Amino acid sequence: MARENPEQSDPGFRIVDKRQASSADRGEQPSESAAQGPPAADAEAHGRAEETAGRASPDQAAPTGNANAQACEGAAAEAPPPMEPADVNAIVEYCMSVLSGQAWQWMGLVVNPLTRKAERDLEQARVAIDCVEALFRQVESRLPQAQARQFRQVLTDLRVNFVRQSSPTA
């Protein structure tokens, strides 16, 4: 007997799982081989068919009339554009950005998004600033002038704020 899955149905649509339906429910005459099950030689093919039975091919799918569902089906068929490998300079620049952001957090000047509190750990801030400087020295000659100037300014800002945060009055 065919069953309807109420969670997957929309008004006006009926979804029937024919894997569970007998040949009599589909209006077919049962054959002797179908009644006995798959022959031993076809057992492997039958197993593969059962694994993929839940996946309907596009020509077997019932029209849904749902634009979102059709858009999703079309998007699944398109492969994402291939990603180009990042060069080492881009990776170093990313690391510098992450470390400088962490330095601001460890100086207590930026709220930690996880704890939603301003936390101070000046030793970690010092290590992060030193790492940003070391990374910058490695790529400084390869960066465009504007970008090198920007990273120099970030380092200067980090150092000045570190000194302010380290003073006893801070």
Structural summary, described in words:
The longest helix has 22 residues. This protein has a domain of about 80 residues. The protein is an all-alpha fold and about 170 residues long. Helix 4 runs antiparallel to helix 5 and helix 5 packs antiparallel against helix 6. It is elongated, with a radius of gyration of 32 Å. The chain contains six helices and no strands. It is about 50% helix and about 0% strand. About 10% of the residues are buried.
Q: What oligomeric state do these chains adopt?
A: single chain
Structural class per helix/strand content? mainly alpha
Count up the helices: 6
Q: For the report, how would you describe the main beta sheet?
A: none
Shape: elongated
Q: Percentage of helical residues?
A: 40-55%
| Average pLDDT over all residues | 73
Q: Determine the strand fraction and express it as a percent band.
A: under 5%
Number of strands: 0
Please report the distance between the alpha carbons of the first and last residues.
77 Å
Our Rg estimate from Cα atoms comes to 32 Å
The low-confidence parts are: 31-65
- The H-and-E topology, N to C, reads as HHHHHH
